[in-house]
Amino acid sequence: MSSSSSSALEMEIFQYIDAHQSDFIKDLKEWVAVESDSVQPHLRKEVMRMVALAADRLAALGATVNSVNLGSHQLPDGQVLPLPSVILGELGKEPQNPTVCFYGHVDVQPAKKEDGWNTDPYTLTEIDGNLYGRGATDNKGPVLAWINAVETFRALKLAMPVNFKFVIEGMEEAGSLGLEKLLEEENQNFFSDVDYIVISDNLWLSNKKPALTYGSRGNACFFVEVECGSKDLHSGTFGGIIHEPLLDLIALLDSLVDSTGRIQIPGIYDSVAALTEEEKKLYESIEFDLEEHRNNCGVKKFLYGTKEEILLHLWRYPSLSIHGIEGAFHEPGIKTVIPAKVIGKFSIRQVPHMNLSVVKKQVVEHLEGVFSKRNSPNKLKVSMPLGAKPWLADVNGLLYKAARRAIKTVFGEDPDFIRDGSTIPVARMFQTVTQKSVMMLPIGGADDGEHSQNEKISRHNYIEGTKLFAAFFLEISKLHRNLHETSHTETIN
């Protein structure tokens, strides 16, 4: 395809998307209206209704849809709940086309207007060009944008440039229960002819400049439990004569990080790769407004003063955060009690080359060492209930090259290549299980507020993101065919 015919095709596609943006927003409004909160048990039926809606939408595209039953799971209180089905969809089987698999989720985080929302979280509301509603950016908006991009080719009666596969789930916000097992079971079947996997479930680094994400940190969550007896005690009767568990716990938590944010656990930085000059230059060109980022999160000051230092400590160095204490009195007012057992909760965001089992060993040895110096008779127990590994992709691969070109076409500029400081288990999961190329292709701005009050996606990002996906289909098709034609020629020669 010549560049002129290619640009004419893109123009036709983009004009259709612009002309139908009201329809696309109406679709998003219908999806946002479903309270598909996977965290709260009483809303599980709504999650299942949302998954069924997504399956119907794919079927309307002409896709073959298989809703895979994952069975049920048991909650800590003993209640057994059905797991929502995972959608495996398929559209197109042209042997000359590459096959691109898209992953998305249609469940959401909890939301109530009284939590601080300015509008009803389940009524998509447009204000000043922003579409407010739970799931607007995480992840119903991007899922619909991908579907709408596919629908555009169908509506214009254009040949599909790629074969499409879809994996859409309804339990991402609750840990993607059952998904990894399904991927393993389907690896030799559904995924056997997949060439590339695309995930759009994160955000740009800035509000205006597009980005491509090529890595994320892992997460090791820890419980540190200190217990002195079988019951809580009166501080007037026992205060000053016993080793109080909460005092032990606070000393343990205080030993983890210093005032500069540096983790104090011996050996924790040993496996972190040294920063190369080549990598350092990547950070210099990234558009990142420190003041804007500070305003977005509402803090007065960061630990570091330069863009480069902030990004390095967000993306490629580990961090440790303390999240709370279970068992201690936390209601309003005073309760003069000495709790019998307290559990501190913290996590370490680890980076590539850090081994989870080694991290756990280092944490346990450090805390046991600090505890032993206190000469406390209390019982100490350290556990790691959750561990997710970091993810890193090849930015020089075909996927990222195609996406970069598509971004240039739609937005008129090259993207920032960024990592994500949080953990994206599905990216690592898909890459590990399928051994396919995986890319994170976000369309939401940095201020979209995923998981927060007043979550939104801008009308501009939702519509231009739809164009981006359509342009990406064309670019990955061209690059894939060129690669295979070159390989075929070399084989003949």
Could you explain the architecture of this structure?
The structure is a single chain. This protein is of the alpha+beta class and 493 residues long. Strand 2 (72-74) and strand 3 form a beta hairpin. 38% of the residues lie in helices and 20% in strands. It is globular. The model has no long low-confidence stretch (mean pLDDT 94). The relative contact order is 0.17.
Low-confidence stretches: none
Number of helices: 14
How many distinct beta strands?
A: 20
Query: Which oligomeric state applies?
Result: single chain
Q: Approximately how much helix is present in the residues? A: 25-40%
Could you outline the blueprint of secondary structure elements for this entry?
Elements: H1 3-19, H2 21-32, H3 44-61, E1 64-68, E2 72-74, E3 80-82, E4 86-91, E5 99-105, E6 125-127, E7 130-132, H4 140-155, E8 163-169, H5 179-186, E9 196-199, E10 211-216, E11 219-227, E12 233-234, H6 235-238, H7 245-254, H8 277-284, H9 290-297, H10 307-315, E13 319-326, E14 337-338, E15 341-349, H11 356-373, E16 379-388, E17 391-392, H12 398-411, E18 416-420, H13 425-434, E19 437-440, E20 456-458, H14 459-492
Parallel strand pairs: 5-8, 5-9, 9-19, 10-18
Antiparallel strand pairs: 1-4, 2-3, 4-8, 6-7, 7-20, 10-17, 11-15, 11-16, 12-14, 13-15
Defining traits:
493 residues, alpha+beta, 6-stranded mixed beta sheet, 4-stranded antiparallel beta sheet
Short description:
Helices cover 38% and strands 20% of the residues. The chain has helices spanning 3-19, 21-32, 44-61, 140-155, 179-186, 235-238, 245-254, 277-284, 290-297, 307-315, 356-373, 398-411, 425-434, 459-492; strands at 64-68, 72-74, 80-82, 86-91, 99-105, 125-127, 130-132, 163-169, 196-199, 211-216, 219-227, 233-234, 319-326, 337-338, 341-349, 379-388, 391-392, 416-420, 437-440, 456-458.
